[in-house]
Fold this sequence. Notes:
This protein has 344 residues and is of the alpha/beta class. It has three domains: 21-115, Alpha-Beta Plaits; 126-240, Rhodanese-like domain (Oxidized Rhodanese, domain 1, 3-Layer(aba) Sandwich), CATH 3.40.250; 268-332, no CATH class. The protein has eleven helices and 14 strands. A five-stranded mixed sheet has the order 4-1-3-2-5, covered by helices on one side. Strand 11 (246-251) and strand 12 (258-260) form a beta hairpin. The radius of gyration is 21 Å and the shape is globular. The N and C termini lie far apart (44 Å).
Amino acid sequence: MKWKEKRDLRPRAQQKQAVQGDGTIRRTLSFYKYVHFTDPEAVRRELFTAWGALGCLGRIYVAHEGINAQMSVPKASWAEFERFMKSRVEYQDIPFKLAVEEGSAPAFYKLSIRHKAKIVADGLDDTSFDVTNTGTYLTAAQMNEYIDDPEAIVIDMRNNYESEIGYFKGAITPDVKTFRDELRLVPKKLRVHKNKKIALYCTGGIRCEKASAWLKHSGFTNVRHLKGGIIDYKHQVEASGLANYFKGRNFVFDERMSERIGTEIVSTCHLCRKVKCDTYHDCRAQVCHRLFIGCDTCVKKRHGFCSYRCQTLDRLPSSVKKRFTRLLSTCRRIKGELRKVPLY
C-alpha cells in the first residue's frame, strides 16, 4: 500500500489560531547531526508519522548527510519523544538545545519535514575537501577566554539580519545575506589572520561544523567553534555563573523570531532610524513579507507594513497582487538558481 502523507491544508491563519487556542504546553528545541542516511525519504516518512502522532510541530530538514530540526514537542509527549529518539541509533547521541525563551505565542503552527539536498545550504562541493576535519569545540568559558584575548579572532557565521540584533562582544560580523555568501567572504577577509586563534559561532552550531572544516581546508591552522552555538552558551553561562559576553538578542528561525540573550539593545528601528529596538516584524504585504525591525510606535503608524509603498500595494485588487507575487517568486527562483555555483 502506497504511503500517503496527511497534510494540514488549512490556511495559515487557521493553523495559528488552532495551535494558539489548544492549551497545549510545548517545549521548543533544536538539534542536528551529520549522519549518512541511505534513504532520506524513508526517514522523512518515519519521522512524520512518529512525531505527528505525538503532536509535534516544527520545521525539519532531512538529507543524505543528516538531519537539522527546529521543533516544539508537547510537554505531555516529551518522555515518549525521548524514548523514540533513543530507540534509533542515529539519534541516540544528539544533544538537544532547548529554547532560552518560549515566548507568548507558539514557535510553530504545523509539522513540516522536508527531504533536501543538504541540511544547510552552503554551496560547497563536499567531495572536494574533508568535511569531517572540523575544528574542536569551545565551551562557554573558553569562548569568553577567546573574547578576552586580543590575539584571538571571533567570527559570527550568521547572516547580517541575525547579527544586527545581537552578537558577541568584539566579534567580526560579515555583511552577508546567506551562509553561502559568508563561506565565500570569510576566508578572504581573514587571510591576514591565517595563523591566529580563530573562534566561530552561530545559532546552534550546525553552520560552524561545516565552516570550520572549510576554513581548515582553506589553510587556517587554529580554528575552533562554540559548542551548541549561542543557544547553549546562554544555558552554560547561567548554569556556571559566567559573564555573559553576548550583546542583544539571538535570531531564531521560528515564529518567535528572536530570544533575549544579553540585556543590551544593539539595533535601531528600520522605519524611524531613531528608536533603539530589536523586535523583528514580518511585513503584512502579500507581495513583500520582508523582515524588518520596528518600534511599537512605527509599526502601529504603518499598520504592520515595512513601507508606505507596501501599504499602497496591499490596497490593489487581489488578482493584481497575485500576479505580482508570482512574478516576484519567479525572479527570486531564478536568482536562487544563479547562486547555486559551488565554491570550489
